[in-house]
Structures are given as structure tokens and as C-alpha cells.
Specification:
There is one protein chain. By secondary structure, this protein is α/β, with parallel strands linked by helices. It has 7 helices and 5 strands; from the N terminus they run H-E-H-H-E-E-H-H-E-H-E-H. Strands 1-2-3-4-5 form a 5-stranded parallel sheet. Strand 4, helix 6 and strand 5 form a beta-alpha-beta unit.
């Protein structure tokens, strides 16, 4: 019932003008659920939500966690992009690119974001962009610390020239 309600909400959001949904999947990882348990108890409901808005151009799978089963999501999901934490998982962008042909979102270390200098941010941007190729959107791998200051938050925009 919850997944059906979420799917209805997503459909209404897209009908009202949303470009898609951002679905965070946090239980598809070692230590929380086995791959078999995820496939049985959660994946059908995650897919139900995404199938409801399959035609939306900007559905994003945020694969949350440091031990996420990334390769489960490389094929067959109605999503425009995968967002994951390269720094948290230790899985290089090039490895994800080797298995996934869609848009990859990530590259910025969200855990240490507050300490990153403009030079650090620029290097992370350059390295991730080169590894991911043209289908890439630079983002933190997950949310940056909630107590980040305005100056810390604007540092990335400054580096990007925004």
C-alpha cells in the first residue's frame, strides 16, 4: 500500500510539472539486506514507484550507503541517472562507467565537503568527469553536512563559475 501511494504521489507530481523523482534506496547494501532479501522484499516496490513515472525525463536513483550493491542497478531500471558516493563506497567512477551506460551523478566527497579547498573540489570534479565521460553530472555523493556554512556551500559554485 505504501509503494502504491508513493507511485500515485509521483504520478501526480510529474503530471503537475515535475521532471521526475529522486528515489533514495538505502537498504540495497551489505549489512542491511542480502541481495536476495532486497530482490524479494524491496526491489519490487522500488520498481513500482519508478515504473509509475517511467516517461519522466529525470528520474534519479540515489544509491545510498557505503556497501551498496551498485551493479544491481546498472540495467533495467527506468531512471535517467544513478547518484552514488564514490568516496564512501570506494568504487571508482570508471568502474561504475564500465558497467553503466546512463548518466552518473557524483564525484564530490560529501563526508569531507566542509574541509575541501577550491583546489580539492576542482580536482574531484576533473577526476570524476574524466572517469565518467560525457554522461556525467557533478554532485556530492550524498547530502553534505547539514550544518555547512553558506561560505562552504558556495565554494563549489564558485569553483564551477556559477
Amino acid at each position: 500500500m505504501i509503494a502504491k501511494s508513493e507511485a500515485n504521489h509521483a504520478r501526480r507530481a510529474v503530471a503537475a510539472g515535475a521532471a521526475g523523482v529522486f528515489i533514495a534506496i538505502a537498504n540495497a547494501q551489505d549489512g542491511i539486506m542480502t541481495q536476495a532479501d532486497y530482490a524479494k522484499f524491496s526491489e519490487p516496490f522500488d520498481r513500482l514507484l519508478l515504473e509509475a513515472v517511467r516517461s519522466a525525463p529525470l528520474n534519479v536513483l540515489h544509491l545510498h550507503g557505503d556497501k551498496v550493491y551498485l551493479d544491481r542497478f546498472y540495467k533495467g531500471w527506468p531512471a535517467f541517472a544513478i547518484n552514488y558516493s564514490m568516496h564512501g563506497t570506494g568504487v571508482p567512477m570508471a568502474k561504475v562507467r564500465a558497467g553503466y551506460s546512463g548518466v552518473i551523478m557524483g564525484g564530490i566527497d560529501e563526508v569531507n565537503y566542509r574541509k575541501l579547498t577550491p583546489a580539492d573540489l576542482e580536482k574531484q570534479w576533473t577526476d570524476a568527469s574524466q572517469a565518467a565521460g560525457k554522461k556525467f553530472i557533478l554532485t556530492p555523493g550524498c547530502s553534505v553536512p547539514n550544518d555547512s556554512s553558506d561560505e562552504e556551500l558556495s565554494r563549489l559554485a564558485s569553483v564551477l563559475g556559477a
